Automatic annotation (TrEMBL):
PROSITE patterns (alphabetical): HTH_MARR_2 (PS50995)
Superkingdom assignment: Bacteria
Gene source species: Orlajensenia flava
Taxonomic placement: Bacteria, Bacillati, Actinomycetota, Actinomycetes, Micrococcales
InterPro entries, per the entry: HTH_MarR-typ, MarR/SlyA-like, WH-like_DNA-bd_sf, WH_DNA-bd_sf
Gene3D superfamilies (alphabetical): Winged helix-like DNA-binding domain superfamily/Winged helix DNA-binding domain (1.10.10.10)
Pfam family, one: MarR
Protein name: MarR family transcriptional regulator
Length: 321
């Protein structure tokens, strides 16, 4: 499902500009997910490993020292989990630990600059490319982007307080850093939202993606079979069959003879599935559409162009490997 098609399931008959901004945000998210998959394949590191190394390299280049406790806080992980991760990264040669000079009970994490060009690209060049786009924003436009990202977080996460109506950077504020922080915090809020959705509906991301794809097809009068789902989700046919067995057992889909292909079976979402998806996600999507809907024309263009620029930067990382 393309970003535009997926957005149309929720944003039908909404403001065109608001929909375009949300589609740009979705394309950015999809590009980052694809980049992370390339990074995992290229480096053999998991998402948390990559996030840790990017942060450590960034702080090291800025002349700041990082302790395991500070890394745990940055990543939102428990200290035992970070200890296991650091042991793994240390054995692989990505970092070393040394005693803090003023507190012998504490450790400082010292990252090693990656020698492999592919790993360097994922750990260093990615942030540099996005940072360049952020630095190209003037202070007023950066404030627009930061506020948009913050308010989108508030739409996703009830615990985030919306920014004041008048928010601008002072002369001493680092606008580009604030933009990068806003992107990171938005991604964290989105991950928390996805976890809440999985818990609420008791299903994984692929199951939910499949349901939304089926519901969109039903709305458009398109008959979808298992092969269509396998292509959409980039899953093996055996995995799709197992997923459909789960969704059928839970009452979310039914299988019927395909109306135009007697060798195939149509996958039909049930009315209960539509009701549950809308009840779980509909209110949140209403809050999400309200954020870009409140932007004036200039602000909407600034946000849409910035998201398009960083999507292009992310799409280039590791794409030729």
């Amino acid at each position: 499902m393309t970003a535009q098609e997926d957005a149309s399931y929720w944003y039908q008959d909404r403001q065109t500009r608001a929909r375009l901004v949300l589609e740009a945000l979705r394309r950015y998210r999809d590009a980052e997910l694809a980049m992370r998959e390339r990074a995992r394949t290229s480096t053999g590191l998991g998402d948390n490993d990559l996030s840790a190394m990017r942060y450590l390299l960034q702080q090291d280049r800025a002349g700041r020292q990082v302790t395991p406790a500070e890394l745990a806080e940055h990543l939102g992980l428990t200290r035992p989990s970070v200890t296991v991760m650091l042991d793994r990264l240390s054995r692989a040669g990505y970092l070393r630990r040394r005693r803090a000079p003023h507190d012998r009970r504490s450790m400082i994490l010292v990252p090693r600059e990656p020698e492999d060009p592919g790993i360097h690209e994922h750990l260093v060049d990615l942030r540099s490319g996005v940072a360049r786009r952020a630095a190209e924003l003037d202070r007023n436009d950066a404030a627009i982007v930061v506020r948009f990202l913050h308010d989108m977080r508030a739409a996703l996460d009830d615990g985030v307080t919306p920014m004041p109506d008048r928010f601008w950077f002072g002369a001493d504020d680092d606008a580009a850093t604030a933009v990068l922080s806003g992107l990171r915090e938005y991604r964290a809020s989105e991950q928390r939202m996805r976890q809440r959705t999985r818990d609420s509906m008791r299903m994984g991301d692929n199951d939910l993606h499949a349901l939304r794809y089926l519901l969109k097809g039903q709305r458009q009068g398109t008959c979808i079979n298992a092969a269509d789902l396998a292509s959409e989700l980039a899953m093996k046919s055996s995995s799709v069959t197992a997923m459909l067995d789960r969704l059928s057992a839970s009452g979310h889909v039914i299988r019927e003879p395909h109306p135009s292909d007697r060798r195939s079976v149509a996958i039909i979402p049930t009315p209960a599935a539509d009701t549950e998806v809308r009840a779980t996600l509909g209110t949140m999507h209403g809050r999400m559409i309200a954020v870009p809907g409140a932007l004036d024309e200039h602000a909407a263009v600034v946000v849409e162009r910035f998201l398009a620029d960083i999507t292009d930067a992310i799409a280039l990382v590791g794409a030729d490997r």
